[in-house]
Amino acid sequence: MSGHSTYEGLRHFADSWALGAMVLVFAVLIAWPFRPGARRANDEAANMIFADDDLGGKDHGE
C-alpha cells in the first residue's frame, strides 16, 4: 500500500464517518443542558455568582 492510497483512505474516512461523528457529538453537547433533568443544575450554575452577596460589603473592599 503506497502513501498516496493511505492518504486517500484517511481522507475518505475523515470526510464521511469522522465528520458524522463530530456532528453527532456537537448535537449531543448542545442538547445536553436542555434535557428535562438539568433544570436544577442549570439554575444553580446561573445563580452561583450571587452566592457571596450575603456576606456584606466589608469583605469585598468596599
Structural description of this entry:
This protein has about 60 residues and is mainly alpha-helical. The chain has a domain at about 25-50. It is built from two helices and no strands. About 0% of the residues are buried.
Keywords, separated by commas or semicolons:
single chain; 62 residues; mainly alpha; 61% helix; 0% strand
What's the structural blueprint in terms of helices and strands?
Elements: H1 3-31, H2 39-47
SSE pattern: HH
Distance between the termini: 71 Å
The geometry reads as elongated
Q: How is the biggest beta sheet arranged?
A: none
Total beta strands: 0
**Helix fraction bin:** 55-70%
Beta fraction of the residues? under 5%
Instruction: Supply the helix-strand structural class.
Output: mainly alpha
* Mean residue pLDDT: 85
Count of individual helical segments:
2
Radius of gyration: 24 Å
Low-confidence parts = none
